[in-house]
Amino acid sequence: MAMFDSLKDTLNKSVAAVSVKSENLVESSRIKSAISNAQKKMEGELSALGSKFYRSWQGGQASVEAFADDFARIQGIEKEIETLKGRLDQLKAEEDKILGGGQKPAAPAAGTIFCTNCGKALPAGSHFCDECGTPVG
Ligand SMILES: [Zn+2]
Fold it and tell me: How far apart are CA 121 and CA 24, in angstroms?
């Protein structure tokens, strides 16, 4: 029963694709919320750093060295966000590969013209349709 076998195969593939997709969805929404948490944390740190810096400037003792720990901490958060974003891109790429997505039809090149008779896309500057021979352009 070759027909049923191939049907089963197709079904198995779609089931696999769907489960990959839902696993990736769970994983990517987890990463997205981690990114948004980290971004909030970073905003908080930056704003705290800003006021701390301002206070120390006001107190006449603004020195960059005094903020080394803060800078390092914020840089750590920033790196964490980069890593998470990288993981997110990776997931997206995996998903595209499995689902055959990400292969959008090529957009017609700028200046493409279309045959008025058969509709074939022709390079700008063509004089005749190379499909049906109708004069174009
Ligand atoms: Zn044509």
Answer: 38
